[in-house]
Automatic annotation (TrEMBL):
It comes from Pseudomonas kulmbachensis. The lineage of its organism: Bacteria, Pseudomonadati, Pseudomonadota, Gammaproteobacteria, Pseudomonadales. The keyword Secreted does not apply. Residues 182-369 form the NodB homology domain. The keyword Transmembrane helix does not apply. This is Polysaccharide deacetylase family protein. InterPro entries: Glyco_hydro/deAcase_b/a-brl, NODB_dom, Polysacc_deacetylase_ArnD. SUPFAM superfamilies: Glycoside hydrolase/deacetylase. Keywords: Hydrolase, Signal.
Length: 372
């Protein structure tokens, strides 16, 4: 019976990971202005907020049957979906108010919003005229926000049977929603890469940029690097960076019988080999963890570190630049947060420099990894 339940759960998890549509991305060349000032960042931010708010408002007109069909699911958790929508509306309102602070410098997409009712009203009638300066962006943006919203609604619909970053289980968990405006944190999963590899390039690149990130390592991958190159090389690899843990293998920790041992073994290895870089953070692969795991993490002094901006760089359907463009669009929408890349993906060699160049003059801040 236990084996049957295990395989049943794994089939459900695999179905959740494989979303029915390709990940959403938005060609940023359709936006006619470069983000060369904080005010121009705000213009683009206001536009993305209104476009997403419009998509969110439209989704609320769907009844349960229509929503199931749209998400490609037979059963959905309406309560979690409703909670997600409420949180999204609250964040959209806060973000729009922040983005409007520069309206005296550029009034594009500045509308009267003094609360939730007026935001919903503006979202309902939001459209781009055919002769607008921004018309080339209008349809690609509409498609992006609908697809991105569906990604999020689908995760909420499956929660908590299939856990993900869409919802927190308790105080031992965090994501990027509480960060300050215009502040972002870089995180990288599933490393270190094989030697030599993307992790080596990435940590060197970050040091040259005087930046730091949190790397969530797999115990087996770290052990391979340790066996091949030794302790000093592993310490040099992560110099100036932070290292959290992601378990011994990149697999779901929600239905794995040895999930606790996976975390304990990896934590012990990292503390022993690179103690000066260790931070007490666990990043669950796929965002999947047990609903009752809070006590374990508290006892171990670990925080579950989730994210709210996903690069989707493991998707074969997205190029490196498309992954970076997705991240930038979500940075404009959410205005702060934890960005999740994978340092085992070669795409990051192109995606990260593109992202940093595109935002270099936009007044953003990058959180020091030790603050995460």
């Amino acid at each position: 019976m236990r084996i049957a339940l295990f395989f049943s759960a794994m089939l459900v998890c695999l179905g959740a990971v494989a979303a029915p549509n390709e990940p959403a991305t938005l060609d940023r060349s359709t936006w006619p202005e470069q983000l060369i000032s904080p005010a121009l960042f705000d213009v683009a931010s206001r536009a993305e907020i209104l476009a997403f708010a419009h998509a969110l408002l439209v989704s609320e007109t769907l009844d349960e049957s229509a929503l199931k069909q749209r998400l490609g699911l037979k059963t959905i958790n309406l309560d979690t979906i409703d909670n997600l929508r409420k949180r999204m509306w609250q964040r959209l309102l806060a973000n729009y108010n922040l983005a409007q602070q520069s309206c005296d410098q550029d009034a594009s997409f500045c509308y009267y919003v003094d609360g939730m009712d007026s935001l919903r009203e503006q979202a309902g009638k939001f459209e781009i005229a055919d002769d607008s300066f921004y018309v080339a962006w209008a349809e690609p943006s509409r498609e992006f926000h609908q697809r991105y919203l569906d990604e999020q609604l689908r995760k909420a619909a499956l929660f908590p049977q299939i856990s993900s970053e869409i919802e927190l289980f308790g105080e031992q968990e965090s994501n990027g929603e509480a960060m300050h405006d215009r502040l972002f944190s870089l995180t990288f999963d599933s490393g270190p890469s094989q030697l030599p590899g993307t992790t080596d390039w990435l940590t060197d690149y970050l040091r040259k940029q005087s930046m730091s990130a949190t790397f969530f390592v797999l115990g087996n991958s770290a052990q391979v690097r340790l066996d091949k190159s030794g302790t000093q090389a592993l310490q040099a690899l992560y110099k100036g960076q932070c290292v959290g843990v992601q378990g011994w293998e990149y697999r779901s920790h929600s239905h794995w019988q040895d999930w606790q041992d996976s975390i304990l073994r990896t934590t012990a290895l990292v503390k022993q080999v690179i103690p000066n870089n260790y931070v007490a953070l666990f990043r669950p692969p796929y965002g999947q963890r047990r609903a009752d795991s809070g006590g374990f993490f508290q006892a171990q002094g670990l925080q579950v570190s989730l994210w709210d901006i996903d690069a989707q760089d493991m998707s074969a359907s997205l190029s490196a630049e498309q992954s970076a463009q997705r991240v930038l669009s979500l940075m404009l929408l959410w205005r702060h947060g934890v960005i999740a890349f994978h340092d085992t993906q070669d795409k990051v060699r192109t995606a990260l420099p593109w992202l940093l160049k595109a935002t270099a003059q936009s007044g953003l801040g990058w959180e020091d990894c030790e603050v995460l």
